[in-house]
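Structure (tokenized):
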């Protein structure tokens, strides 16, 4: 027996053991010398495809939501909010609910003051603190702002009666201090 035949016999003997059973060729009955390097069961391959599809869908959703949030952040919500407060005030006034109309107009004024950087809004701040901020940052606007804020406090917290005439005067004062800007707040 030649060395080549002996090597082939030893190789067949080694590869015929149970751990190399799936590498045997079914048709020839001989051991494949160069089997596939990476061979997985078919069920695993479908599992991998499914996993990759789930990862891709998850990434698409993640980046879609991220893009949507970025676009939302680029919109100035204060623009629409200003219109909303002014529209609410008009709606309340038409119904004769002047107390709520005054509150809505005051919210509109606070939004205007925020846009003008007269105040920095915070839910815990009082109207007195807002008056002080306006006094420091925009002293020229402080007296009318203070007058409007005090009227709001008397109406909203003090429950001072407000009539249609008083409401019209209040609205006029606010419009002088915070005129409607373009189409966003009209």
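Design, position by position:
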């Amino acid at each position: 027996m030649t060395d080549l035949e002996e090597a082939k016999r030893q190789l067949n003997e080694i590869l015929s053991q149970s751990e190399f059973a799936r590498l045997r060729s079914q048709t020839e009955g001989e051991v494949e010398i160069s089997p596939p390097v990476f061979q997985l069961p078919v069920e695993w391959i479908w599992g991998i495809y499914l996993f990759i599809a789930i990862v891709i869908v998850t990434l698409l959703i993640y980046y879609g939501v991220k893009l949507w949030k970025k676009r939302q952040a680029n919109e100035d919500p204060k623009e629409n909010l200003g219109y909303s407060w002014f529209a609410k005030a008009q709606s309340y006034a038409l119904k004769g609910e002047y107390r709520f109309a005054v509150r809505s107009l005051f919210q509109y004024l606070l939004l205007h003051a925020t846009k003008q950087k007269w105040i920095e809004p915070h839910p815990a701040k009082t109207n007195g603190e807002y008056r002080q901020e306006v006094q420091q940052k925009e002293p020229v606007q402080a007296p009318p702002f203070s007058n409007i804020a005090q009227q709001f406090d008397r109406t909203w917290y003090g429950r001072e009666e407000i009539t249609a005439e008083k409401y019209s005067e209040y609205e006029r004062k606010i419009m002088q201090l915070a005129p409607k800007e373009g189409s966003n707040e009209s």
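Reviewer-requested clarification: The chain has three domains: 1-38, 40-75, 77-177. Helices lie at 3-15, 42-74, 77-95, 98-115, 127-137, 142-156, 164-177.
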